[in-house]
Amino acid sequence: MTLISTDWLNENLGKIKIIDASWHLETKNGQAEYKKEHIPNSVFFDLEKSSKQDKNLPHSHFLPEKERWELKVSEMGISNNDTIVIYDNSFLMSACRCWFQFIYYGHSPKLVHVLDGGFEKWKSENKKISAEKTKIIKSKYYAKENKNMVKNKLEIKNNIEKKEFILVDARSKNRFLGLEPEPRPNVRSGSIENSKSLPFLDLINKKYKTLLPKKNLEEKFSSIGLKNQKNVVFTCGSSVTASVLGLAYKEINNNYTPTIYVGSWSEYGKIK
To answer: Left, alpha or beta for 55 (phi > 0: left; psi -120 to 50: alpha)?
Structure first.
């Protein structure tokens, strides 16, 4: 059970650790939103500061060094055995990326959950919100990387010929087809050769910001030829929305270990 409902979270507020992972590429500030209002006792996860930034790739989101991740999570007061619920105010995308990172660094998948519908659904149901600063008792978190959950640029390039895994792109169809410009500077339009397109927003109920029911998810993945395959890798602009596809695919294929190309198109499509 990766996704949990707002009702479940409401009934378990005092028993778990809650993370607000809201992030926006531009215009809005997730941390400012958190300071204004958040789910009670939640702590803020800063995606930018919890990623490894490449100065030559604006808004890149490579995974941080293990020691840096341990420090960040310890500062949030989270321990290895904690049950965690992650939410956002950004169409599940940054909550799913935070979920992916916890699993990558060794937190048990059975203990890491994403709030279906996020903060917007929570507020629409008139559930409790707070502006109070959450009291944090720092922990000592220990990470263990699962490097099989990520692919690098060389592996992506080699796969074009070897075809060892299926690569699926979470960006919009027009960006995938190169019909509209990329939002990042010095990145060409288009997509990786032989990759498939499945826009992450196609998997989300726009009204409630919830993931589509399992049957509908199965239909979406089947439409691009995916059904119970294990060798599937997801990509996008900077490996954030790719995590939405990773979570959604795991919802219909529990044996799947989410795997993403962390450089994604911001790295692969960079104009030299």
So the answer is: alpha
